[in-house]
Amino acid sequence: MLRCILWVLWFTTISTCAEVQFPKFEATSSFNSSFTPDHMRYLRNETKSLFDHAWTSYMKYGFPMDEVRPITCEPYGPDVKDYTNVIRNDVLGNISSTLMDNLDTLVILEKWDDLEMALGYLYREKDSYFDKDVVVQVFEMTIRSLGGLLSIHTILSDSSLMKNLRFRQICQNYDGFLLEMAYDLGKRLIPAFKTTNNIPVPRVNLKRGVKGVPSSLQLETCTSGVTTPVLEMTLLSKLTGDLQFEKYTQLAFWKIWNSRSSLDLLPMTISPAESEWKDSITGIGASIDSFYEYCVKGSILFDDTHMWEVFKTSYKALMTHSVKGSPDEFTSLIFANIGSEEGLDATIWIDSLSGFWPGVQVLSGQLKDAIGTHMVFLKLWDYFQIIPERWNFLLPKEAIKSEEDTIGLEWYPLRPEFVESTYYLYQATHDPMYLQIGETVLNLFKTKFMAPCGFKGVQDVRTGSFQNRMESFVLSETLKYLYLLFDEQNEVFLHSKRMGDTNWVFSTEGHPLWFDYNTEKTFKGSNITPKKHEFVAEGHRENSMFKSFKGLFSTTRKLKDGTTKDITIEYIDDHEFVDPFQYKFDKCEVNPFTSGSTDFMKSSYYELDNLFNLDYEYSSHLYHPHYLPQTSLDNSYIELADDFYKRFTLFNPKLTCSLQSNTEKFDIFIGDKTSIRNNSLTLIPSSNTLWIHEFDNVRLSMELIQKGKIDSRHNYITQQQVETTNSRLVEGVLDPNITLYDASVRITRINGVFVKPEHELVVSRFTQDQLKRPGANKRKDRLTIYNSQVLLDGVVIENLRITD
Ligand SMILES: *[C@@H]1O[C@H](CO)[C@@H](O)[C@H](O)[C@H]1NC(C)=O
Ligand SMILES: *[C@@H]1O[C@H](CO)[C@@H](O)[C@H](O)[C@H]1NC(C)=O
Ligand SMILES: *[C@@H]1O[C@H](CO)[C@@H](O)[C@H](O)[C@H]1NC(C)=O
Ligand SMILES: *[C@@H]1O[C@H](CO)[C@@H](O)[C@H](O)[C@H]1NC(C)=O
Ligand SMILES: *[C@@H]1O[C@H](CO)[C@@H](O)[C@H](O)[C@H]1NC(C)=O
User: Fold this and answer.
1) Ligand 4 atom with the shortest distance to the CA of 264
2) Where is Ca(2+) bound in this sequence (predicted)?
């Protein structure tokens, strides 16, 4: 669940509701992290009980309003007195949002009575259901209600999905009215997209259209808001045969993509009227998150190779400019917010919403990256027992007066993203650590978040206070993904073999969506049969950069110093030269975690020697709020929970910690930043060579290798090691402040590609005079060549060779 605006202060009313009964839960489970089939059944059952509690409370005290307030058991809907209260009104359209958002959840949790009741209500109300004089946000309405309706329509149109008799009966009685409702809603939302410049306005009045919205509410929209509706709307067009939804949302999507910066990055704030960006910050979190998500999911759902290319281009840009991490395997990766024009850090925080990213990384086949990104959110949960809306991980240590300064925004409205990514990672790896995470979250729902009429999120992580609000995504996503995490054995149709052959995705709101080109069931009353989407197969991509420079490698070349291996590129066939990003996306990472082992009784987490690096690296930015236990040995660290640790180390604990790197690290740009995207790298896997034709238009991450320090590969740097590197030079100290045998420089990342220890970078042409380093620096930053070695300020770049 994603959102444009999040700097909201929630208001809390604390007063409890006496007559309400809390559900009964066992105080502690007798299973204790065993994850046997019985234990998994127990976990599913417990999750279902949690859902029942919230759903029953909503139906009793909230319905037909949009939500129920969990602490005070009151109904909650739009703010009718203050139309500028968009935080509340954007998602609350007086349309029973919690019900709209959870129709498919009722199927997944097999709540047939509740489903029949909800369907009966909608059937009675369908004709005037959306005919409400309310201003809503098009994005929120699309992902929650339109997506919800499309999902339940798709499910009910296919009675072969489940064996359950009740379900089959419900399907038989279903006449397609939910698609009619979706069509009605779509027609009320699409006018927002029919602007002269194809950039949609953010809001509509459901009854009175765009004209019914005060212009002060239409000034700004965000990248997610403009580009995300394309998925639900395209599906609506395919199901109804009315092409306007696909047409207008696709126009908006491609218009935005075409206005990306020269670094292939999209800013996040747009003025629809002026048709221009209002800001240049970008990242992966709030305001842009679902753009990336739907590039991947759109490419899966509609076999759309164009969207897949957009995702890969974006991923490469983020790996070049945004990511913080090391070339380590399973290193923790933080995707920082950066300026889209210059690619430098633009904020000090990451947000809770970016917790969706590991799920998208899994879907796109980037499993190692996903594990590393997810670890950051795991650590946040370890310390705060929630994920704060914003965490100031880049706040300089000197600026931290109180540990609370590291909290950028202090609330947690029970957002689903962490559980969602955990679900994807468990499906991909089957590492029991992900179940342990799920059980920990489940236990907190049973205790800490439990409220008389649902679940209460955290208002302020610094004080431990709660908020009297339960958004519809708590049920439709957080509890749904939790349930599905424990449901690996096909008990729900989603994990069945049949669905394994279907191109289905969860929408950004957790609604399962798929589109069967052969389906007979179309919109009743529409005589247009959906056509099969044209599949544009792109075929094998040629590495054109390599092709044009191939002649350079027509003879065997030996490096001048003679100490390194020969590079005999002429013997290598064309197909052995690959674009490292193409390579990254083409090969399928099948559970990289266990390196072949499928032992159930073992978590691969305990093999990671960098499991606690983040704790050290951000020791000034991670702390336990005063009301939580202060020690790591009380089971509050998920990865150190006693029972789990004993079981899943196979009684052979191997937990080791690597040395914490303390080398100086910096980035440099050479040449023109805006041409970085055109300077392709070539990987020659057989010789572990990364070849770059011209050492120009590159972004490099580097570290200074000095004796006595610990490098980013966690090795202690010895005098001998530095001397060996430097012995290739006879003399030539250019910077008087650095003596030759003291240091070398190592490239750790070049244009988004991590340079692994086994890699050697080879460059064939060289530019000397365009080097820039962001930020203040005392160095001269000069590149020179000496004996085939490239030197930065007189210090050897140890993993870079130049061919002459
Ligand atoms: C599970 O843990 C609880 C609390 O640590 C303990 O009281 C109980 O005996 C354990 N149960 C089993 C089956 O080990
Ligand atoms: C599921 O939980 C309910 C109470 O919440 C309990 O009555 C029932 O026996 C449980 N079923 C299983 C299979 O554990
Ligand atoms: C909400 O919808 C109900 C039912 O259609 C209607 O009676 C009520 O007036 C609406 N409330 C607001 C605030 O629009
Ligand atoms: C760089 O690549 C983009 C496409 O990625 C292309 O549109 C542009 O013309 C290229 N620029 C140059 C200078 O080659
Ligand atoms: C060398 O270091 C000294 C003292 O730190 C400084 O004043 C001087 O500018 C440095 N020289 C160069 C060439 O960087």
Assistant:
1) 5
2) 508
